[in-house]
Amino acid sequence: MIMSLKEMLSDDFSEEFLLCGNSACSGCASELALRWALKALGSKTVVVAPASCTNVYIGLWPGAAPTVPFINMAFAAGASAASGIVAGYEALGKTDINVMTWAGDGGTVDIGIQALSGAIERGTNFIYACYDNEIYANTGTQRSGSTPFGAITTTTPYGKPIHKKNISQIIAAHDIPYVGTVNGADPRDVFAIFKKIKDITGPRFVHLLSPCPPGWRFDSSLIAEIGRLAVDCGIWILWEQENGEFHLRGKSRRLLDKSNRKPVDEYIKKQGRFRKMTQEGINKIQQWVDGNWLAIEKTVKGQC
User: Fold this and answer.
1) How many structural domains does the chain have?
2) What pTM was computed for the model?
3) Orientation angle between helical segments 29-41 and 223-232, nearest 10 degrees
4) Does residue 119 carry a pLDDT above 80?
């Protein structure tokens, strides 16, 4: 159950583990999500961040924003480093430390996927969170394997010609204790999921939508609206797989009925990265979204 903002802002959750005044872009969903993920996990947390925007906005010691141990790591080694930290704590008999890799889509979907697959195949007791801003935002807005069809980047100036990679389903195929998708622009959603998975043992993977105002070309004041539209249009589906059992959650539960979903053009037309999108392209995205929901429907019916 998702808590109200009043409950979340009570004294129990008032401590900050990611301080204000950091150098994140205005309206950065990944910084917002990390703040609330750490509130859920608490002070006994170690964060590993492979190369990404996060390495920049946490700042430099001794003026760094995190109040928990935070390790900057090479692009491909986020999950590998976390595996070593977990092994070290286990050797010391410390089993109450949350170890979390906090990585972008470049360090997860592309460069870091081999280390991630290996770590979860070994059963590493850690959380891997991918904040998906659908580009290499920190290095000039290049396309990643997670960039959606039609999106303009510096390496796809006319729009990406193929759909994004479904990293959540790839990880779910590893049959780990928990895989879930989250709206990173919704603090309540972020907090609820990280609070839920905190005490699960084994590999846990969280895939967060992370709208990026400068990279997606929208005003930072629209960050929450863009996140909501992604869910309401069915582009970003909220689901969980717990110990092999799949289920929809949150607003996505009612979106199996296509009539409850908003058309994708409401989402697309608010973002400058889709400015070269034709109606044919919009129709192609709508067909892709509808196809994803048909697959979800088959999965849900198959479990009944």
Assistant:
1) 1
2) 0.95
3) 80
4) yes
